[in-house]
Amino acid sequence: MRRAFLTAEWRNLAMLNYVVDPALLMPFVPKGTVLDTWHGRTYVSLVGFMFVDTRVLGVPIPFHRTFEEVNLRFYVRRTVDGEVRRAVTFLRELVPRRAIAFVAQLGYNEPYTALPMRHEVAPGSVTYEWMLRDRWCGLRVETTGAPRAIEPGSEEEFITEHYWGYTRQRDGSTVEYQVVHPSWIVSAVSRSAVIGDLTELYGDAFAARLCEPPHSAFLADGSAISVSLPKRLTSDEL
Question: For 4-232, which CATH superfamily applies?
Answer without folding.
Answer: Acetoacetate decarboxylase-like (2.40.400.10)
